[in-house]
Design goal:
- The complex is a heterodimer of chains A (293) and B (316).
- Chain A has 293 residues and is an all-alpha fold.
- In chain A, 73% of the residues lie in helices and 0% in strands.
- Chain A folds into two domains: 5-59, no CATH class; 60-290, MetI-like fold (Orthogonal Bundle).
- Chain B has helices spanning 2-25, 27-49, 63-66, 73-79, 82-102, 104-114, 119-130, 137-148, 154-161, 173-188, 193-201, 205-213, 218-243, 250-256, 262-265, 268-278, 282-311.
- Chain B has 17 helices and no strands.
- Classes of the chains: A mainly alpha (293), B mainly alpha (316).
- Chains A and B meet through helix 1, helix 4, helix 5, helix 6 and helix 10 of A and helix 1, helix 2, helix 6, helix 7 and helix 8 of B.
């Protein structure tokens, strides 16, 4: 059937609007990448740059030669790897336990978990507990309190609900216990879901900021986001550590603006790398949690 | 009488026996959940105890037990402090802005995406608009500064080279809420379409075909088939949003806040961080946090009740 003129106009307008939305979404990224690769002298001369005549990797060379940046990259990578592995293990095992209907006390534990989603004691009581446990200024202060994310544990429980208990029965007959069954039968079956949750945990750890400024004042343990905050927003908020500020602005031949943009690009690349995998899984993840219909 | 009591007693004993047998049988299952249980106790329930310092004059030197009880002093102080109304106003204003200007956008965007017939184009736009959701607020704030800062911001550089004067986008109180809303739109509007698009994908295509046969235009098909299919999700998300009215993301506001706009930027969490963690007024800010958590809880429970009444199904 041929479309009427009105429908064609509707369709064109729709496509053009979406194209504009796409460009608005992309433009900041484009600009950041362009500035980060602009030749320092060109950047300082021009009033503004939308496309550089001379490309340069000076900003990248500079930032990757500073100890503080490399160190923070290391801290964030450590958090993303160790934190993700531990969070995934703890949350999956807990979620699995809650999904077995024969468990005595199951309802009570699920209620206890849901309560923590509905009510939080607040920033200060959490802060005092981490302090009491002497975790302040260690990376454990970021990993341990978030190890069991109530919401994710509940989602994992919902996922494991779908795995029938009959699957375990033959293994029980063979004399395997629950721990072996979990690791040798259940986990291998759940790899796609675990991968999805793992990616989300990893992005969460990579982006962690609030807990880091709350618990970590030792600049040698700054995750990347805290360092970035100091670099990007120092004009407004003031960098937390004067030593770090000094090292990052020591070099004057490279303008601070291009260095900042290079830092943003480097901090975003890991997200871009996992993005296609995230995209494959996230719709599933959202659906699992949100719609029961 | 006596016999009945004996039977009841032995039944109770039998029940307890079975309970212990079941716990013993599942001991490895409990062991599996033990690390999670410890985390739940240590990091979710143990801090609840700390709520009590809202009713004490807590001093780290005296410790929890020796700090004196002061009843509702800190709540009194807070409710009679001008900061209270400031925090309330800012929190509600930021959330209302988001409700009015952010909330409809994922709905419109998903309707627009749903009308795209060229699959490659649709996928590409989706990939682009979902991406900002995964970036940290530090990056988002950084991008905002890169675009809007007074000195190095691109917009101001362009304005200046065109002969206009620079505009102090980020240090003007009138613009602050709009900037927060704009950031939220840029970061989350795309991601917000996921649920709607999933619901639209489940619509029976024969409905559209039948409507086309009857001569319904694309607009009418959208209005009479697509929109009803997502109406329930819209209502549920709207109710959920109501339950969230006390919450403003700490990181976003903290990163965008500066001295010039602090009167419109301070919200409960940033206040607790500044006055409690930084300045050390722990009891007072615990009371502030408790107030916020409590109102939040009431709102969520109310929202849940509303959702149950509307759809017959709550969230928990």
């Amino acid at each position: 059937m041929k479309e009427s003129l009105g429908e064609r106009i509707f369709s064109y307008t729709n496509h053009i609007l979406l194209l504009i939305i796409g460009l608005v979404s992309l433009f900041p990224f484009y600009y950041v990448v362009v500035v980060s690769f602009t030749d320092p002298s060109e950047y300082m001369k021009s009033s503004f740059i939308l496309f550089p005549k001379q490309w340069s990797t000076a900003a990248y060379q500079y930032i990757l030669s500073t100890n503080v940046f490399i160190r923070s990259l290391g801290v964030s990578s450590y958090l993303a790897i160790v934190g993700t592995a531990l969070s995934l293990m703890v949350s999956a095992a807990f979620g699995y336990m809650l999904s077995r209907k024969r468990l005595f006390g199951r309802k009570f534990l699920i209620t206890a978990l849901v309560i923590t989603i509905l009510f939080s004691p607040g920033i200060i009581p959490n802060f005092l507990v981490v302090k009491d446990l002497h975790l302040v200024n260690t990376l454990w202060s970021i990993i341990l309190p978030g190890l069991l994310n109530s919401w994710n544990a509940l989602l994992l429980k919902t996922f494991f609900d779908g795995i029938p208990e009959s699957l375990e029965e033959s293994a029980f007959v063979d004399g395997a216990n629950d721990i072996r069954i979990f690791f040798q039968i259940i986990l291998p079956l759940s790899l796609p879901a675990l991968a999805a949750f793992g990616l989300f945990f990893a992005v969460g750890y990579w982006n962690t900021f609030f807990n880091a400024i709350l618990y970590i004042s030792d600049s040698s343990k700054y995750p990347l986001q805290v360092l970035l905050q100091g670099m990007l927003l120092q004009a407004e908020t003031g960098i937390a550590d004067p030593g770090v500020a000094a090292q990052l602005s020591a070099e004057r031949t490279v303008p601070p603006e291009t260095i900042k943009m290079a830092a943003v690009v480097i901090a975003t690349v890991p997200i871009l790398v996992v993005y296609p995998f995230l995209q494959k899984h996230f719709a599933k993840g959202v659906m699992l949690g949100s719609v029961k219909e | 009488m006596n016999a009945n009591a004996t039977i009841a007693k032995s039944a109770a004993i039998e029940k307890r026996k079975r309970k212990w047998a079941s716990i013993k049988r599942d001991k490895y299952l409990y062991l599996l959940g033990l690390p999670g249980l410890l985390c739940l106790i240590l990091f979710k329930y143990y801090p609840m105890w700390g709520i009590l310092i809202a009713f004490k004059d807590f001093s780290p030197f005296l410790g929890f037990f020796d700090s004196p009880w002061v009843g509702l002093k800190h709540f009194d102080l807070f409710f009679n402090h001008p900061d209270f109304w400031l925090l309330m106003r800012n929190t509600l204003a930021i959330n209302l802005m988001s409700l009015v200007f952010f909330f409809p956008i994922p709905i419109l965007l998903s309707l627009m995406l749903n009308e795209v017939r060229v699959e490659v184009f649709k996928r590409t736009i989706q990939s682009i608009v979902y991406l900002p959701h995964f970036l940290s607020w530090v990056i988002i704030a950084g991008l905002t500064f890169t675009m809007f800062a007074t000195g190095e911001g691109l917009i101001n550089k362009i304005l200046e080279s065109l002969g206009f004067s620079r505009i102090e986008w980020l240090t003007t109180t009138e613009y602050f809420w709009a900037f927060l809303t704009g950031q939220t739109i840029w970061k989350e509007a795309g991601w917000g379409t996921v649920l709607f698009l999933a619901a639209m994908a489940n619509i029976d295509p024969t409905l559209y075909e039948a409507a086309k046969m009857d001569g319904a235009s694309r607009m009418r098909q959208m209005w009479h088939i697509t929109v009803p299919a997502i109406r329930n999700i819209i209502v549920i998300l709207l109710i959920l949003k109501m339950g969230d009215m006390m919450d403003v993301g700490f990181e976003q506001v903290f990163l965008m806040k500066n001295a010039a706009v602090s009167s419109v930027a301070e919200v409960f969490d940033t206040y607790v961080y500044r006055v409690g963690v930084r300045q050390g007024l722990l009891s007072y800010t615990t009371a502030v946090g408790l107030f916020k958590s409590f109102v939040g809880l009431v709102l969520v429970l109310g929202a849940n009740k509303l959702a149950k009444r509307y759809g017959g199904q709550g969230f928990f």
